[in-house]
Amino acid sequence: MSVATALPFLSRRAAARRVTLSFALLLALSPLPAAAHPHEFVDARLTLRFDDAGALTAIGVEWRYDALTSMLILADLGLNPAAETLDDDDAATLSGFDTNWVEGYNGDLWPRQAGTEIALGGAEEGRAWLEDGAIVSQHWRRVLQPVDPTAAEPLSIKVYDPEYWIAYTIAAHASFEGRSDCRSRLFGPDLSRAQTELQAALDELLAGGQDIEANFPAMGAEFADELRIECGPAPREAVPPS
User: Fold this and answer.
1) Is residue 37 part of a domain?
2) Which of 41, 81, 92, 208 could bond to 71 as cystine, CB 3.0-4.6 Å?
3) Rounded distance between C-alpha atoms, residue 173 and residue 175, angstroms
4) pLDDT score at 25
5) Domain of 143?
6) Confidence class of residue 241 from pLDDT cuts 50, 70 and 90?
């Protein structure tokens, strides 16, 4: 029985990992209230790779898991949950654990340009390791139709789990490979508005007698950070008249 079958309220992100049922049940049966999303916390870092023509061809993704989630994943994989480092065999067991995705899962990566979603390939070159007891994983996503994020048409990238089982934080500005004229700006969400909208959605579920966990609102986008990327000459700031 798969995690997704046994616990359908798990996000596709959580179910996509090769976790055993014991990990999912430990989270599901915890004493937290049903509305206590999120359950996992991940710092995300992004690297943008450009070809010789200056077009974006791939996005590198790094996920750094919180300490508790790291321990549970290690235990589920039969590894020492208190480990600070891994030997080669254990590192091989860990690498790729979170890139074995179910069909339809987009990797919680949402790039857009001029309002249009940018199509990406699946996870490639997946690897993972431990840093100070926390799991860090990396993989690459190919941009299926390379784009040029100019100042006129900047690129917007968000990292979020729609079901908000996982809370992502974009922990740093983007890194760039292949171009030296790109810039990123990081924007945080309006948390007050997001919390208000989430509470209203939960109140509606309760009023209708629905199971909150099984029908948790798809509010991840409302809590998401946003990176805006543009390349080329930096726009000049307007000089006020003297």
Assistant:
1) no
2) 81
3) 7
4) 46
5) 42-231
6) low
pTM for the whole structure: 0.81
Tokens for 77, please give them. 């994989």
Cis peptide before 38 (omega within 30 of 0): yes
Quote the CA–CA distance of 25 and 15 in Å, as a whole number: 12
Specify if 219 maps to a domain. yes
241: which 2 tokens? 């008249």
- Please report whether residue 134 resides in a domain: yes
Would residue 65 count as lying in a domain? yes
Model confidence pLDDT, tens digit, residues 182-196: 999 999 987 788 778
